[in-house]
Amino acid sequence: MRITHFISTSLTIVTVFFLGCCSKGNVSHQKEKALITYYIDANTGNDSNTGTSPDQAFTSLDKINSLTLTAGTQVLFKSGTTYNGQLKPKGLGEAGNPIIISKYGGETKPIINAEGQHTAAVYIYNMAYVEVRDLEITNTGEERENGRRGVIVEAENCGVTKHIILDNLFIHDVNGSLVKSKGGGSAILWRNHGDKYITTFDSLIIQNCHLKDCTRNGINARGYTRRDNWHPSTNVIVRNNLLEGIPGDGIVPIGTDGALIEYNTMRACPDILSHAEAAAGIWPWSADNTLIQFNEVAGHTAKWDGQGFDSDWNCIGTTIQYNYSHDNYGGFLLICNKGNTLNTPSNVGTKNTIVRYNVSVNDGIRPYPTERRGWFSPCMHISGPVENNYIHHNLFVFPEKESADIDRTFIQMDNWGGPWANKTLVANNKLDFSEPYKMFYGESQQTFGIDNEFDSKMMDFADSNEMPVWAKDYMSDYDENWKEKMIEAFFMDDEEMKQRLEGMKQ
């Protein structure tokens, strides 16, 4: 059941003060210059040509990399051609006149193939107002390599970097390392850093891309994560992307405030990570106010974690809503934080996580024991000192599991290096189970089950109708149309799921 929404993006561009890597030229004078289009044709071009018309096309990446591109410049690769090496353009666009890198002459995407010889096939470094569209990108070496990527977007010591768009890219066969601690690998990495100038992204957008058979991860990030040096990127959007054949973490915003992750599909994750590697589908890390909505995660097979969704370390205000999670080995949801670093500069805690209006079907089906914890795959794992968790108005559908050994736990709470969870509300959910399940609250504090709909023969759940004082104001905010939204997004052709949703009480 795939998402069929196609989102058009409308952007309001604002003026940028770009430190460190910004030319000081007169902007109004630049706008009066004639805009340049460069054409590149690997088959018939020549780098001694002017490059400014199809019959005078350049032929190589090296030629484009040698130019300093100006606002409004277009760099167009001939459809159906292939370029071996790394595309590393340089230059700055401006508001209303971005640099555009794309294709011409047909529908087939031109290919940038780094052949495993470069860390990334496309490397966008200290550029602003640049859009990269309609390319096929690959980077396969003879052996897996730490840190190998398809695309890297990096900003270093250059202030606020605005308007970076990656759109309609096909990134595939990037064989980075499978080991996170050694640098891993991914289809797309963005990173911002700097000790001379604080450097962040504003309006970084990754949309309409197809990421296939990339290791270890899909889209991940690096940024400022310590709370004593907190400078989050803003207006980050990851939208309408398809991730297939990715064994590790799917989409992980890091060092952001207000990131929007929506209408993405992650599926068919190969079971090739070791038992030492933890991974999940879509989750923030050291990021505030992340909104994760209308995404589908299916078939995650990581041997540790392996959930569809997660609210993780040092995150405040994560909302996970209107998502469809199914057939994930490790379950639907993880909320976690490590207690022995709590209230240090690296970790203010994981607080105010909202999980609502989601559908979880057949999650928590890991078919073998893990080396860490045996047969462990609860539907929801809440671990460590996480506070103010609101899990409400979700539908859980669990058919009979294939083996008697497979975990049958709905919620597992435990302790990760310190205090247990505090203030967790599980309310107004429908639990449609085909066989008995268990719960474990452990030493968590103020955990409440309120008005959940379930068969008491299937689970011993201490449920009541008395809402805790600390949750009353929050629960007054309710979307009466959430079931219709989920049907439209995921289940238009699924009569059984329609009936299950429509049959839920308000």
UniProtKB/TrEMBL annotation:
Q: Which residues form the Right handed beta helix domain?
A: 199-352
Q: What is this protein called?
A: Right-handed parallel beta-helix repeat-containing protein
User: To which species is this protein native?
Assistant: Carboxylicivirga marina
Q: What top-level branch of life does the organism fall under? A: Bacteria
